[in-house]
Amino acid sequence: MNPKPDAGMTVNCSLEGATARSATARILHDADLNAANTFATPDRITPRGHKIAVEAGRMIVDLPPLSVVTAAVRLG
Description:
This protein is mainly β. The chain has a single domain, classed as Golgi alpha-mannosidase II (Immunoglobulin-like). Helices cover 0% and strands 45% of the residues. It contains no helices and 6 strands. The strands form 2 sheets. The chain has a 3-stranded antiparallel beta sheet with strand order 1-5-4, with no helix packed on it. It has a 3-stranded antiparallel beta sheet with strand order 3-2-6, with no helix packed on it. The protein is elongated. It starts with 8 loop residues before the first strand and ends with a strand.
């Protein structure tokens, strides 16, 4: 999760006691920081695929401002 409204961030992490082999991610985000789902636009903000990299057992993902990302990680 990136709660900052004015800056993106890159998350680079590993799992203690396990090694990530691959991962997929989904994001909730809109470029308009005031966007919202309404009765007129109920699908304005919906989960969609997001790029995540696995390098040397570590996961690396970029988070735009005011975004939430979930990752499913395959361990090896």
